[in-house]
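To whoever is on call:

I kicked off a structure prediction for a single chain this morning and the downstream step that reads the tokens threw a length-mismatch warning. I double-checked the sequence; it's 186 residues and nothing unusual in it as far as I can see. Pasting both halves so you can look.
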Amino acid sequence: MANSGDINVGSVIRFNGDLCRIEEYQHRTPGNLRAFYQARMRNLKNGKIVENRFRAGEAVEVVRVDYKQMQYIFPEGDFIVVMDNETFEQVYVPSFLFGDGIKFLKEGMEVKVSFEGDEPILAEGPTFVELVITYAEPGVKGDTATNTLKPATMETGAIVNVPLFVNEGEKIKIDTRTNSYVERVK
């Protein structure tokens, strides 16, 4: 058992019997009252946000989480099949754990999966991906003067807003956290 001063943003704790990941964590000392920690947590089972105040020194159960780099293989129903790069074992990860980043995954990409025991509890794709544009309206000479964007369809089916000068068939770098164009890849 740890106390409330030992946890940080990103820690996984057991709160009311459920696994929660700390998203915001602040130490507060209001006027003449006792200090406390204000926590904003995401329930890992259903995705709901939970807020709670922990007294300073309160016992908190921190869950041991193992992180593994795995290789994305293919989707199957409501699951994503990933492979452990060391043991070549295939693991079925629920697709909702990847969130919006799932639309940027393609075969062979490295993904980060977190396990509590043998059960996957968190998953995230790469922060930046390089994908080829399969469809975009053609650019016109002189389109680089403004900051206007147009929708482009990627090879994975995701739609990203790109500058007007980017054309079909080009490879671009995308930030999967914000679903936004970063740069062209040469």
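Update from on-call: the warning came from a stale cache, not from the record. Cleared it. Sanity check on the structure: Residues 71 and 110 are 5 Å apart (CA to CA).
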